[in-house]
Amino acid sequence: MDSENPYESYITASFYFKKQQGISHEEFYRHWSTFHANMAISCKPFTVSFRRYVQMHATQELQMKGSELGMEILDYDACAVFHVRNWDTFVKLMPEWQKELGTDAARIMQMPPKIFVSRDVVLFG
């Protein structure tokens, strides 16, 4: 934790991706949130490096609601958000994590995903 920041600080890696063509949204979200998620949280890199894992499911209904705001909607089906305390550890363990999950991920997700890396600054909640 940064001594000048009273809040716990994480580095956030957000991976944006689209589902594979030929897979329904329902099948994609069901597989990703159960089978794939269980694989992810059971592998060593996950338990060593990650502090939080969030799946964001961009359903068509929610995307339509977002378009009501008059802003451009990101053209992705999902986003996996990982909170890590140490970026170097995350990078070092990523090849092992990709080896364990890569085949299943490529079965349901178009590769490669897009990534957005940031530092969290918690202002509320």
Automatic annotation (TrEMBL):
<dbReference type="GO" id="GO:0016491">
    <property type="term" value="F:oxidoreductase activity"/>
</dbReference>
<dbReference type="InterPro" id="IPR011008">
    <property type="entry name" value="Dimeric_a/b-barrel"/>
</dbReference>
<protein>
    <recommendedName>
        <fullName>EthD domain-containing protein</fullName>
    </recommendedName>
</protein>
<feature type="domain" description="EthD">
    <location>
        <begin position="21"/>
        <end position="109"/>
    </location>
</feature>
<comment type="similarity">
    <text>Belongs to the tpcK family.</text>
</comment>
<dbReference type="InterPro" id="IPR009799">
    <property type="entry name" value="EthD_dom"/>
</dbReference>
<dbReference type="Pfam" id="PF07110">
    <property type="entry name" value="EthD"/>
</dbReference>
